[in-house]
Amino acid sequence: MSQKATKVVVELFLSAVTCPGVFLTEKDDVYLNVCIMRHYENSESVPSVFPFRFNQKMRFEKVFKHANDPAAVADLLQNEAVRFELIQQNPPAGELLAYFEEDARTFLFPEPKLAPSLPGVDREVLMTRAPYFPGIAPRIEFSTRTTLMEYSFRSEGVINPSLPSMNGARSERKQKLSHPLPPAVLKNERPITDSRGSTNQKRSSAWAPDPVEKSWMPGTDGRPDRQSKNMGPDSRHMWENIHQRVRSLLTTSSAMNRLANGATDSEIDDVMRRRCVLPHSCPT
């Protein structure tokens, strides 16, 4: 939603700065610093010999929101400042020789004077000299042209509902990033390299988890699952390892003490049968 405002455009033409009969002791160049409606411009540097000829044009612009009436704009200009500073470029930071200051309304819309201005110059003002400036106060010769035009700007906070909000998208993105990833995703994420060794993508356990090592569980037929990734190529060797572990458990000191202290015949036969799991382990 657009709102009406007034744009003030000031065109300033600097002609010269004169000060008859005054000579500066320092020989550094001088320039004018101009501030109108809080916008700053510097003139070109000229030799420090009066009169200072600038012949330079400057442009200043400012938009006054919620001001449609020229009278309201004039009241706002009364709170804006216009300042000229004549500065000599003495090291280290320069030296202020003279200045002129006035509110923007009086400067841009002066009252008509009975005395005519100099030929070719619309206006002139006297500057206030610094305490260490030698001689009389300098005088600025210039001309101005002020234009007031209607200006439309977009109201802040009014957003087209058909367009996505950039602030909303940024806050949603920050909210997503604020939640930490699961530990499994951070732990299992690793780069995938091509044949040349360059990393081209990343794999995460969120969609491709790493294989988890599981213990073997026998099936109903008493054989291990052939689809298990933990089975070795030689199933007979694995069976022998399992039987060797069982046999070592049955021949522990506790089991042998049970036999020595007088077990029943059925218990002895049961233990002996367990020892004879493999043919070569049976006593002859």
TrEMBL record:
GO MF terms, alphabetically ordered: myosin light chain binding
| Compositionally biased intervals (Polar residues) | 195-204
Q: Which GO terms describe its cellular component?
A: sperm head-tail coupling apparatus
Q: Where is the Spermatogenesis-associated protein 6 N-terminal domain?
A: 10-147
Q: Where is the region Disordered?
A: 160-236
Question: Superkingdom of this entry's organism?
Answer: Eukaryota
Biological process, per Gene Ontology: spermatogenesis
Extent of Basic and acidic residues compositional bias? 222-236
Phosphoprotein: present as a keyword of the record? yes
Alphabetical UniProt keywords? Phosphoprotein
Matches recorded under Pfam families: SPATA6
What family is it from? Belongs to the SPATA6 family.
PANTHER family per UniProt: SPERMATOGENESIS ASSOCIATED 6-LIKE PROTEIN, SPERMATOGENESIS-ASSOCIATED PROTEIN 6 SPATA6
| Record protein name field | Spermatogenesis-associated protein 6 N-terminal domain-containing protein
Give the species this sequence originates from: Albula goreensis
| Species lineage | Eukaryota, Metazoa, Chordata, Craniata, Vertebrata
